[in-house]
Amino acid sequence: MNNQEQHLAAARFLALLRPIQRDLENHSRRMVFDRRDFEDALQNAVLRAFRAFDRYHDDASFRAWMFKILTNEIFAINRKRGRVAQFEIAV
Q1: Please, what are the domains in the chain?
Q2: Which spans in the chain are helix H?
């Protein structure tokens, strides 16, 4: 991917992210056990999604895709802090 393609992909990613950014933030605030971690969870999820954006398909819901990535990141942070949600199975 050349620089122009990367720039266009980044602009497209941000255009899809902006309308749901507040919803993602609220989701993160509600799901993270330690309030200080919600920003880290959100930032990590956005970074992971951006890195994987070339695998995102236009026929899929960007919102659902982002929420899944964010939820997985939240679970990882909660596990790291030693807390597991009741609906998440500890292995």
Answers
A1: 3-80 (1.10.1740.10)
A2: 3-17, 21-31, 38-51, 62-80
User: Which phi and psi angles does 56 have, rounded to 5°?
Assistant: -75, 135
The structure's pTM equals 0.83
Q: What is the mean pLDDT of the chain?
A: 89
The helix/strand/coil state of 41 is: helix
Cβ neighbours of residue 1 under 8 Å, at least 6 residues apart? 9, 54
8 pLDDT higher than 90: yes
- Dist. CA 80–CA 68, nearest whole Å: 18
Please, which residues have CB within 8 angstroms of residue 35's CB and are 6 or more apart in sequence?
29
Question: CA-to-CA distance for 15 and 18, rounded, in angstroms?
Answer: 6
Cα–Cα distance for residue pair 70/47, rounded to 1 Å: 10
Segment among 19-23, 79-83, 84-88 with least mean pLDDT: 84-88
